Amino acid sequence: MKSLCIVSQQSPYASPRAKEALDAALVAATFDIPTTLVLLGDGVFQAIKTQAGEKIQQKNLGKQLAVLPMYDIEVLYVSEQDLSCRGLKPEQLMDNVQVLPGEQISELIRQQDMVISL
Amino acid sequence: MILHTLNQHSELLVRNCLNTIASGDSLLLIENAVYLGIEESFSTSPMAMRTDINLYALIPDCEARGISPLLFPGFDLIDYPGFVKLCTEHKQVISWY
Q1: Half-sphere CA count of B96, side-chain side, radius 13 A
Q2: By its UniProt entry, which PANTHER family does this protein fall under (chain B) (predicted)?
């Protein structure tokens, strides 16, 4: 079974792209494809613990990302540089998130067989 | 007085807007632009230099994105009726998007 990396680069709520990246991850995991989800660029905003999409009549993406461990996607990877230049700290993110420096992120992506970027 | 609304998380948009904004004008962050108000990054933004303008952010968009606790305290938080009120109090509204 080939492994898959999904790179999600958009913030939640303003466009459907973040949700589509999550859906792709869930579908892949459902078919037992080893799946890694990486949040880069504005994608790091998806991991903010205190988000509440219902305030603007949308599904809370954070809650959906939080159940990924049930699909064997144990952690979400977030770029340290992308986080800090947006004024965020690791403790403001959800529990199943791992912050890695950019070079480790690129190494992680290189280790996967396929990449989907959204 | 002009009300400027920003709806994207984009430094370029901020720069364009600030080039046009005059003393006493108001700047309202909505949708993805509320991320620009995160205190940690706002403090180094050109917006922080402009102490002569009024800063507002839309509550539902801040809460949805989970950044209300992280926002620079200089922002006045407004709800949708407050947004309408701001529009009526300013002669013109410019949307930056």
Answers
A1: 26
A2: PROTEIN TUSB (PTHR37526)
Of B9, B60, B70, the CB nearest to A11: B9
Instruction: Check CB contact under 8 Å for A48 and B65.
Output: yes
Q: What is the CATH number of the domain that holds A8?
A: 3.40.1260.10
Q: Show residues of chain B in contact with A56, CB under 8 Å.
A: 60-61, 64
- The model's pLDDT over A63-111, given as tens digits with 9 standing for 90+, comes to 999 999 999 999 999 999 999 999 999 999 999 999 999 999 999 999 9
Return all residues near B65 (Cβ < 8 A) that are at least 6 apart: A11, A12, A13, A45, A48, A51, B32, B34, B35
pLDDT digits (tens, 9 = 90+) for A27-63: 999 999 999 999 999 999 999 999 999 999 999 999 9
Six token digits for residue A83: 């986080």
Superfamily designation of domain B2-95: DsrEFH-like (3.40.1260.10)
Domains in chain B: boundaries: 2-95
